[in-house]
Amino acid sequence: MRTTARPKTATLKTLPGDDVHQILWRFSDRFDLQMLVNSVRSVARGPVARLVASGARNTHEWTPEKASLLKEFDAAGVTSASLDAEYGGYIDGPKNFALALSAFELAWVDGGAATASLAGCLALAPIHERGTEEQRAHYMKLCSPTLNAEPLRGAFCLTEPLPYVGVETGLLSGKVRIAEWKEGEEPMLEVDKRGRFTTNMGFANFVTAAVDSGDERIKGSCMVILEETDPGTFDRGSATKKMVHQLSSTTDPIFHLTVPASRIIGGYEIKDGVIVPNFNHSEVIEAVFRRTRVTVGLMTAAKLLSAVEPLLRYHRDRFRGGETTHPGSVRYELGLQQKEDVLHRLLEVWATGEAAASLGFAAARLFDELDPLEQEKTALLAAQGAGKGMSAFRAMRKLEPDAIAAIRAHRTPDNPLIRYLILDSAANVFCPAAKLWNTGHGANELREAVSLMGGYGITEDCPGFLVQKWTDAQLEATYEGPEAVQRRQLSVTMTNEVFLAQFQNWIGELRVIAGEHPATSACALATAMQMWLWTLRHLQNAKDADGQNLYQSSRQGVTFPMADALCWLLSARQLVLDTMELAAKGRDNASVAEGFDGLMEFYTDLCSIQSGRTAGEVGRICAELVFGYNRHVDWTGEGCFHREELISLESIIPGIESMARDVLETDGSHPPKAGPCVRFNGYEQFQALRSKLDGCITGSQLAKDRAGESLVAVMIPAALDYPA
Amino acid sequence: MSYHIAVCAGIVPDPLQTLEPVSGPQGPALKNEMMLPAVLDPWAAHALYEASHLAKNVPGSKVYLVSLAPKAKLQQVLMTMAQKVAFELVALDGPSSGFTESADVASALAAAIEAIPGLDRSQLLLFGGWESAARAAGTTLAMVGERLGITEQFQGVDALKVGADGSLEILERVEGGKHQVSVCAGAPAVLGWATGSLPEPPNSPQTGMQNMRTVMPALQKAKPAQVGAHAFLSVSLPKQQRTTRIVKDVPAAEVAREIAAWIRGS
Questions:
Q1: What is the rounded CA–CA span in Å between residue A198 and residue A194?
Q2: Is pLDDT at B229 greater than 90 in this prediction?
């Protein structure tokens, strides 16, 4: 029988460069973004790396050296990348992908620098997403380094001291009251807010803060803009003693300020003498976080990929310089790369990094596609008189059957509202998935990277700053919504039937890819997706041994692992899709074409490695959930034979007594095990899928062996392009 | 008085890359050269920064970046270089490795410069590196000048001052760490720059976006250059090869001592 496993024909010649990444992440034709990448890179691998190497991370305080980075960001166009052209920006259209690339490049060297850069965008995001025209024009202009020699800097303040807003974003202690409301004049508000872990606070000139009403003349919550020159207290607070991201300024500020009501983000109406903000704080932060969380996920992805080159160099050079290790000897040429374990583990780090980047950038592109559609949706709903809240929700809900029908028919609907529904359902899954998996699983893999560097790995001057990147990843898994928040969101959004209809289609698409590119293990991935879908449907209807519903909000032991499993699937799938893009376009690029065969083989093997690991994880999680909530039968219950029963049956079915395994003897004794083996009545389909999935993993370890040959052969630069 | 400054600049592999000579179907080459990240030749890059500085100080002047390189690689390099200074690109598609013949390259570059629409040859300043990181022969620029009929040529330039009468005062490197001061009446002239005195400008995506309006069309219509028709009888590695080693906390004197010992030993 012929097999689909390929013999090795070509290996990776050089580390994948910009040309390759531009194809994989789909920005080969975006010169503005390519320039942004180069510009940010020069800051990251220059001033940022020098600061880290000189030990600037060893203080919690915001120092002049750290502050100098802000000017570097301004000069290199990092700050203005998020701004529209009218405010000195240079990137047309939505900027989710651009900011994702920017954060990726900065985090390649230091996550804190990336956070410092992004926190300014985060402060402006509520104004950009939900602010009034006046607010937008005013603050965007003042924050533009193109238009101002000393641009304003902002901070975003949501989190409060315990036990208030943190994981649960609805529980606010910050209050807004009416300080003064003169007849015919704009009301003046008194804002009381204590923040915790507020980034950029060491130097911010303004703050966008979430507060709740503490006055019956103000309805609900809102976000307000506070300025350092407002009357009252603008106390920046002391520096948070965080052990990570020390190149960003984080403090616990205190505000007691009087501001005009025009600072309510998105404006307000007055109804029956009550100020009604146009957007409550949840509506504002939802619009903000669903975009910025993707970027955080990409920061960890960058760190994983940045670990590859220093690890390759360390492994290869490990024994050079020793008296008994001579050039030309295997020990000299390969160093630790003689050992299979080193190669295989590094490949897992690399495959995770590629999959994480693929997922994150796909999510960022999705939001770029969604942004204009969202504006169109808002306008259309407003024209229908269903602009906001429940009426908008109901209007969109009615369109779900049409959206599902269009997905099943593989048709792009003409109605922009339906197109929005489809994209939005995917975005609502991709965003938390990228944040959760990239940072959570990414942190685990970064620990692996540190350990692959041996004792050097835990030193401050480890090439590539690996230990800093590992610990930073823990913060990335926590801020802007910790892992539990992402799992909670996924447990809801992944059951949206519009999303699931797309998911079903993706299974078929992966089978087609597998037909043309079997070595990607796309088929294993498709089977794993099939198993996940079967398991979800089963759990949605099944009950546990005590008769309780399995898939329900409070049952996080069920919903959260399913969310985790989905993340594995989505990231591996996206790596396969990106690799297919490389297959389609790589040869057209003269730089990529030279080593194309080896490059494609390597990425194909990475797909297989990641798909194999994914299949293993998904199989384990699904099996635990499908069987784990049933009670194991014991020797007193049904499911075992009694000896007397067998003796009497022997005359009817000769031989049964010798064949039966789980037999309770007449004296009550039984085989030494927990009980009769579990029977699978009703689970035959799952069992068949599980068995099929295990078989589908065939070849993924061979892929690891092949890819390992590339690690040994690939050319690497003589030194890292940033100091350590 | 204004200048048309044509800066000749090739691209070379990023200096951190490991370079390995190999024999290819077209003769000697560098292993995986097309796949290695490239940069604008550092010597020529100094010339470009000096050209931009001069153009800013002499109103009406214009900078042309004239480059012969594989277009796909050149495009990647320009994603950074286009952010540094404003220029108009004149691109030729062809190999940029150290194994091309400088006379061929000079012919192609000279022809491309002559064909620049609206170029005032009487006000032409031909800039470039006095040598190159590709082969360090430093022969191309002089030959481009000769082909364009420019006889005022200066090499190893570190500074240029324009006098009120349009004369050019030029500081050239000579032996013993000294400079020679020359004065010529004015353009046209060839200036092969050493390092000059200007720092590398920071990246500015805004400048880059401005440059891209001409860069992309220029790359699209870049014509293949006729270079590399010569056969090499033999190619050998230089006796002195780079050995990159990262060291920390070593005094400068110790580093100098080690380098001197390495040079003596080779």
A1: 10
A2: no
